[in-house]
């Protein structure tokens, strides 16, 4: 809602007159903006005010005469989901306040610690974040990434200055550019993105995806997750991500090359072997990386293989890079299964997705002794409780390009496949596959996330209550960026490693990250995702504090 002048209209819902007077007095100290506070003492009065849409933000006490605890926030949220809400809480209700933030509140403040500076900043940042989100980052994936971060940040009591800084990427580039279709007179204009979340840790690192749903919010979420992933794996990178909003399956090879080279030229100022190193992601592959490398090298006047990773081995690519994500996932599944006393040779697995990650996961898990009873791609899911013939499945996919029509099992939707009973479930397709809607029907012992963001926070809570062990995405699918780091090291040193060396180093990195995450999870009594997030965030925060602030 737009507001005249510099005034911010605050709705304070608080029944304690002492706390109300304190908030009003502290906000009077603000020089800009000017806070105009309306105070009500019951939720009913608050909801009536919210219906008028006359306020920019709400300060909400969760314990009121006519409403108690988390239901108070839910009722406010239901009345106006777009209104930013900051919780004011007592020390005995911190868990409730944190839960409200996980569910969409912008922030929370402790009544006994209220000071003008933090209060004013919390309100201002909350309004700014809401407006920016609605204008540019309105993405379910980005909201999930922020909520995961905020949950971990609260549990680890992260410094507020650092917390505010890490909520959004440090650099973003949005470009629109043309490329010619094969019909030479036909020119198409598309949107491209490159986002760098954190520059503190060294060069940034992250993939490039071609997909029709690519946007600034999605790209920013992926860059944020890449920051935590690199930090968790102890890699000297910050997180980045890029992409083009296009369906690559409708492009010919010539069109794809023209698109790629033009996109590379548009982001040329951001990338470089010491600045930002792209890699393949959804809809891209080693051939796309070769075109980006060549485009960059043409501008430099000499070959720069270390500008990208995931390129062909003949151009300086690393052996094992293409299958590294699935191989790393298999390594942590094996380690987790050993800790959970799961005998993989007597266990079953279902893998959602049959691309680079999902297809290789099917292969490696089968080699590890698991019976693959389900697999899927965009066309269908295939389920056979007696076990799929993996060799026949790959042969069929190679011939027909999709799994639809494969006769070795029962056809079902991707959503139905996720709910079939198995020991190991691997969502390796897209985000938001396991949600509050279906989490209670997930029936596995171990969930290993091959995709980015396949599980929502609400689903996490359900799965944890059911006793399902989880390997979160920033750990389970970190094999790709880890071997990308190995490739970058090999290129910068002009010294190539063997496949055995790459896999041995990958195994060591993955197992080390898993054990650190498991130890933290057990020590702090938090789930594996939160433990992995804290591991990564703690390392980034330490680096920021060590470097200081310029100027």
CATH class of the largest domain: Alpha Beta
Number of domains: 3
What is the tally of beta strands?
A: 19
CATH fold group of the largest domain: Rossmann fold
* Low-confidence regions: 1-5
What general form does the structure show? globular
Please compute the radius of gyration using only Cα atoms: 25 Å
* Residues in helix, %: 40-55%
Taking the sheet with the most strands, its summary is:
7 strands, mixed
By CATH, the superfamily of the largest domain comes out as NAD(P)-binding Rossmann-like Domain
Describe this structure in words.
- The chain has 551 residues and is α/β, with parallel strands linked by helices.
- It folds into three domains: 7-135, Response regulator (Rossmann fold, 3-Layer(aba) Sandwich), CATH 3.40.50.2300; 171-315, Rossmann fold, CATH 3.40.50.10860; 324-480 and 512-534, NAD(P)-binding Rossmann-like Domain (Rossmann fold), CATH 3.40.50.
- The protein has 19 helices and 19 strands.
- The strands form four sheets. A seven-stranded mixed β-sheet has the order 16-15-14-13-17-18-19. It has a five-stranded parallel β-sheet with strand order 2-1-3-6-7, with helices on both faces. Strands 8-9-11-10-12 form a five-stranded mixed β-sheet, sandwiched between helices.
- Helix 2 (43-51) packs parallel to helix 3 (70-79) and helix 11 packs across helix 12.
- The radius of gyration is 25 Å and the shape is globular.
């Amino acid at each position: 809602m737009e507001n005249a002048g510099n005034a911010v209209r605050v709705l304070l819902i608080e029944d304690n007159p002492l706390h109300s007077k304190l908030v009003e007095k502290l906000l009077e100290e603000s020089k800009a903006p000017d806070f105009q506070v309306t105070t009500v003492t019951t939720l009913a009065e608050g909801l009536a005010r919210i219906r008028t849409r006359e306020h920019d933000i709400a300060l909400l006490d969760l314990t009121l005469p006519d409403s108690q605890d988390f239901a108070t926030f839910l009722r406010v949220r239901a009345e106006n989901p777009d209104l930013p809400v900051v919780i004011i809480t007592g020390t005995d209700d911190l868990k409730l306040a944190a839960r409200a933030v996980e569910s969409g509140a912008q922030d929370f403040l402790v009544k006994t610690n209220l000071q003008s500076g933090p209060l004013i900043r919390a309100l201002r940042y909350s309004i700014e974040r809401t407006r920016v989100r609605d204008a540019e980052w309105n993405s379910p994936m980005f909201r999930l990434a922020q909520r995961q971060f905020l949950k971990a940040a609260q549990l680890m009591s992260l410094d507020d200055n650092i917390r505010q800084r890490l909520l959004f990427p440090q650099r973003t580039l949005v470009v629109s550019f043309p490329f010619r279709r094969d019909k030479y007179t036909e020119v198409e204009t598309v949107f491209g993105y490159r986002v760098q979340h954190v520059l503190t840790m060294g060069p940034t690192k992250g993939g490039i995806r071609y997909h029709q749903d690519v946007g600034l919010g999605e790209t920013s979420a992926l860059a944020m997750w890449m920051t935590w992933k690199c930090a968790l794996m102890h890699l000297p990178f910050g997180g980045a991500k890029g992409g083009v909003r296009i369906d690559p399956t409708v492009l010919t090879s010539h069109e794809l090359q023209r698109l790629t080279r033009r996109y590379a030229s548009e982001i040329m100022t951001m990338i470089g072997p010491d600045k930002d190193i792209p890699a393949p992601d959804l809809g891209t592959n080693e051939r796309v990386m070769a075109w980006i490398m060549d485009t960059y090298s043409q501008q430099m006047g000499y070959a720069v293989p270390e500008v990208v990773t995931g390129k062909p081995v003949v151009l300086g690519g690393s052996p094992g890079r293409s299958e590294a994500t699935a191989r790393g996932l298999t390594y942590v599944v094996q380690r987790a299964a050993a800790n959970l006393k799961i005998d993989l040779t007597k266990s079953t697995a279902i893998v959602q997705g049959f691309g680079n990650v999902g297809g290789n996961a099917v292969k490696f898990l089968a080699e590890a002794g698991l019976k693959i009873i389900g697999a899927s791609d965009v066309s269908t899911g295939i389920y056979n409780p007696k076990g799929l013939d993996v060799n026949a499945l790959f042969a069929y996919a190679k011939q027909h390009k999709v799994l639809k029509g494969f006769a070795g099992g029962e056809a079902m939707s991707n959503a139905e496949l996720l709910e079939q009973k198995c020991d190991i479930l691997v969502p390796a397709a897209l985000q938001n596959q396991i949600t509050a809607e279906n989490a209670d029907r997930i029936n596995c012992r171990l969930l290993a996330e091959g995709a980015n963001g396949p599980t929502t926070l609400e689903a996490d809570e359900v799965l944890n209550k059911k006793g399902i062990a989880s390997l979160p995405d920033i750990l389970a699918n970190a094999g790709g960026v880890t071997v990308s780091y190995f490739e970058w090291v090999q290129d910068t040193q002009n010294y190539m490693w063997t496949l055995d060396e790459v896999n041995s180093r990958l195994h060591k990195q993955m197992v080390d990250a898993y054990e650190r995450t498991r130890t933290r999870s057990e020590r702090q009594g938090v789930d594996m995702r939160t433990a992995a997030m804290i591991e990564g965030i703690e390392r980034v925060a330490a680096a920021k504090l060590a470097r200081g602030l310029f100027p």
